[in-house]
Amino acid sequence: MATRMNQGAGDGSITEFWNGTIFENETKNELQKNGYNGHLINVCKEYPRNMVHIMNGHTYLNGHTSFSSVTKDIIESNGRILVEDGTLKANRNTTITPTNITKLSVIESDKFKLKESFEKPSLIITAIIHISFYILMFLGYLSQMLFPPKVVKEKSREGYPPLYDRFSSFYSRYVYRRVRDCWNYPICSVPGAEVTLKDRITRDNGWTFEFTGTQTKCINLGSYNYLGFAQATGPCAEYTIKILHEYGLSTGATRQNHGTCKVHIELEKLMAEFLGVDDAITVGMGFATNSLNIPTLFAPGCLVLSDEKNHASLILGIRLSGASVKVFRHNNMVHLEKLLREQIYKGQPDQPNNEYKPWNKIFIVVEGIYSMEGSIVNLPKVIALKKKYKAYLYLDEAHSIGAMGSTGRGVVDYFGCNPKDVDILMGTFTKSFGSAGGYIAGRKELVTYLRKYSYASKYATAMSPPLAAQIIAVLRILMGKDGTDEGKNRMDALARNTRYFRKRLAQIGVITYGNEDSPVVPILVYYYSKIAAMVRTLIKNKIATVGVGYPATPLLQGRIRICLSAAHTKEQLDYALDAIATVADELGLKYSRLPKDLAPIVYEET
Ligand SMILES: Cc1ncc(COP(=O)(O)O)c(C=O)c1O
User: Where on the tree of life does the source sit, at the highest rank (predicted)?
Assistant: First the structure.
């Protein structure tokens, strides 16, 4: 029991009372005295080792009227019970009696409340989306039967199994090919507030493409240029060119073997200062920052609790590490806590004689902003859970660093959390910094360990010096070290653009996902055909967006994903919003049934 508690189930004196709470024996006795005997005995049978664990407050407590009013509203709030108006009613030392339990109505503290929406379409629309998808698949199979592919037939492979599985080849040839023109558009300019697309046509229904020799300049709603630092001119570009002249493009070696130069050291120091932690390590590629460092940190015998929407680089790193994984529902703190409790209770599986063996370590892996959902992690709650259960926290701020918080220090800054409460801070430089690469930051010991043992330090060529220079120049601006307000102005502009754009979309009546402060804005269009129609129509209107469908989203949740930027002007946003409103009318995309606030939306002045 003691071991189990040490790994994170809390200290022995805890007398909390929420959904799924573990009661200590003393508390159980206390409650039994107060009339909860019958209920507790039932639960005790499931969890015999001196603990009472209510697995699912709702299921168990249903029908127990004395609890129902409490459970309806119970949400864990960091060891406290709050009443409706948010005042502290009871704490760990409060004696729980039937009277005060039934009176308490627990609310979520404001700090943990997320301003997020994931509206579902009506049942009828859902049914039509399903039917249309089956029709699409049926037509695909028919077309495969009647018109087998000529251009891609494998030859001289007698006796070999096919390289691709049957569904992937069918799907990419007969479903994705129909709309292929909407993806992989080559660009021929800086991806700033505007971007120039290289025009192309297909003469064989998407099997092949030819360039026409013309170009289309569009408003760019598709690139991760949150702070507008994707620029070919200005102080960042100038410093980058200076470093290019000094160091060339590549170090031609790993960080451990003559690959470390002045800019790497400066960048890592500056990044740690920016984030408010001891130290940072940088890697030449964001994807590799996750996939090559996680296997150095996690190992078999560790448990990883991973958000279901985590990025492929995190999933790959976790898989390579050999750690055991449990996936929790997206940003669902109740599910995360349930898994934590269950797994701490169960420990490592398949032990000889069914002995209890605790997990060596437990890691919670989350992202700051989820790039397909536009949602923001419930960081205060994750931190509360990780502290309560003594788990480690790995936070990927790829999309949020620079883009969130009043000083651009990501979701940690946005929620006013302490960066030291996050054990492993990860992020990339491909988005807000207009460069490439990634970082891991945190305590000195962590970073020193990674410098020595990470695959990225040992085997991968160091970050290109001009890329490091671009990041340094951006950091100086964000931290005000350039002596201007430029950094602050850009962060404010992004926040302003985000609020304006999201509010206007809500008025148009389309369904958007995510947090009202998130610059990633998915517009749900559901159908494959509508993704294509919207991307094509918007390009005709000189607006570039990104369509996202299966397998990047669930099959029936096709969407247009818009990324806002500090570089967008109000005029550009208004033009894009008017075009989106027209397309939404033409294609029937106004699925939202939420009440609309029709008051004119004011674009906040600087
Ligand atoms: C959450 C997350 N982590 C890591 C990466 C990989 O970063 P990069 O594209 O810089 O290699 C991405 C890419 O978009 C991402 O969204």
Answer: Eukaryota
